[in-house]
User: Fold this.
Amino acid sequence: MVNDAPEILLNALAGLGLFFVGVKMIGRNLSGLVSDQIRARIRRASQNTWLAAVFGTVTGFVTQSGRTTSFIMASFVQGGFIDVRHAVPVALWSNLGCTLIITAAVFPIHLFALFLLGVTGACIAFERPRPLQGAANAVFGLALMLFGLKMISSSAGSLTGIGGFVSLMGAVNASLINALLAGLVLTVMAQSHMSIILIVVTFANGGLLEFQPAVMAVLGAHLGSSVITWLTGVNFRGEPRQVVVAQMLYNIIGVLLMGLLLGLDWFIAGPHGLIQSLTEQLGASLGLQVAAVALALNLLTPAAIGAALPVILPMIQRWSPATRDEELSKPRYLHEEASESTAAMLMLAEREQLRLLRRLPEYLELARVADPGQAAELASRHAAFQSVHRAIEAFQARLAARNLSPELTEWLVRQQRREELLAGLEEVCRDLAGVSGDGSALAGMRSAMVESLDAMVLTAISGFEQEDREELDMLATMTEDRGPMMEAMRRRYLAGGVNLSDSERIEVLRLTSLFERAVWCIRRFGAAAMLDRADAGGEEVLA
Assistant:
């Protein structure tokens, strides 16, 4: 046996290599199969508690990672497709789905793994059928993982004859703390708690690990999953991070619950507890006993957290409160509850347009400062504006699909036109705030443009908000054709009347063009608002 020690270790090492490659292929290819249509179904299913559990389980089995699923749901929250309250249950139940693969470590399915290797390997080699290449790669990864587990399992019994490995397993079996730390450290190193749990179950099945140390290693793997979830989820902020925190707490709460149950079991029945005795009476192998504990952990934990979610979620929200940008990125008035009344929906969309219009003076305030370091602030404001803008456009598109009366159709068309003008005006204000204007020769011109534009925007806000015809008439006067004035200004600055560098001349052209475009957008926005005020169609419909 000693002479065969290198071969035994290399077989086990090769099995580990195939196993980890298989895990990576499953995650990479099956995640890609989660299409936009499936994600839309997840979003709808998340509204129902039971469907959320089912979809979470299925998604976890597809991605083979509760952490990956939690990141997907966090991205949904970040994109405004789903709220945290509905995203968290899907993420939590995904842990049960990825745990189902544990059965591969305790049932004799190696012949099935060989069959999958042959069939999917041929599909990949000959690239047939092409539409199923992603699925073929994923199944090939599953087959590699199963085959690797078989190699590890075959070597497990022989490893007991190698002195160094026996000493290592002896240290793990001798101390529950050592087993817990081993599971935690190995999970952080492997970046996959399911991989470590599968290996632990395989070792237990081969007699290398005893029941209690194996269970502690499983608990350590869940704690390690919390560590890597925290480390890899640092890019999420605010509400999306709440989903990541929930996934992190999932493992901690699960470990505490299972630890409490095992402790009570030990206190009542002694070291050889009721759980182990029951599985032994059923004729289960040691590996199946450990697998049953892992499955129970991932079944009880989401059920317990789901029941306590009304208490846990406010705590998570305090730890990771919504940011100001998130608040600005969300529509305030667009609600599906008003979908039965088209006129009410149009009025709500106008309220959202007013919210966007009120943000424009903030851009102009930044333009007054003209600080090059405010680029990040401008980008953040623009992203929030665009998020609400897209929501309004989608809202209006749903209305356009309805069979509307001529009056409501005209109202909607004018509103869509205003939305286009708002987007153009926001772009101009953002660009104007991004112009440095450091040159003293241009400072006066730039300041005059900003102040003039600010007065126009404030007048537009007042007229649109208060439905004041006099304000809109004043806006029409303020935004009369500025072409001749801008042309005269360009000639003055560019014809040699003012000493400018080449870069400053370019800035003159840019500033005057931005101002002309802004005035054009405001004038047409006010004209569209004037038509709404002059046409009583909206009030007639509501009446």
